[in-house]
Amino acid sequence: MIDLHSHTCLSDGSSSPSDLLAEAQHIGLSALAITDHDTFAGFDAALPLAPQYELELVCGIELSTRFHFENEPSPPVSVHLLGYFPEHAPDEKFRNWLGSICSTRHGRNIKLMEKLQSSNISISWDDFSHLGPDLAGRPHFAKVLVAKEYVADAQEAFDRYLGDAALAGIERKLPSTEEAIQRIVGNGGLASLAHPGRFPSAQSSTLTSLIEQLVRNGLRAIEVYHSDHAREHVTSFLRMAADFNLLVTGGSDYHGENKPDIRLGTGRAGNLCVPDALLATLKSTGPPLTSS
Question: For residue 173, which phi and psi values (nearest 5 degrees)?
């Protein structure tokens, strides 16, 4: 069993890199990808520790992007990409590019904090422990709002304060999906469309159009197995992968306590089991993807 989608506390998860590796070993994973948002900090911290946990550590990342449909006036949509890389993470040029993306999070978070405070919510960066505007994600804001009893749960936090509609006017300026794919490929990586089941009308021709456009720009895989994907999603996405000659990836999207209903390796209520063979197939398509 493997898990190619997980997050640490150096992104929007709650587990330290060492705790994540220990949990992976405890549940019997043979390989784990750390795919923190827009940063390799979690992977970098875990890399020297991985040998003692007797599993393969895969270098990965999850990138937030904006996608524009060709020849359509509709506004851009949010698309997440997973990138998987060779034995070492990409070069400094790629990391510097990631830094420019992270700076957009800083600006958005400062404005979000001001907006919440102007809504008579008692909140400050002191409520975020070791995190600050550079690392905090919306799940961290949600956790604080729940802890302070402004909302009953994370879903209400997003519905009222943190969702895309609530953040209109203070959105982050993100790279295009095409640019992100090209950056991944340019560093010897493989780009996979993350959790397509979250995309509006996931079963529709709209998703097909998105994949068609991205394949032309270098998309190589689709995340078929995910904690949010019901059985009918998996069947549909396997068919799409075959139709577009895409590789298959999969993972829990583990965030620790920030998404407590999702377990590493097994997803939500045991709905996930990513076959080991997927990683072997990914590795056979190009440079080695793992470090040991």
Answer: -85, 110
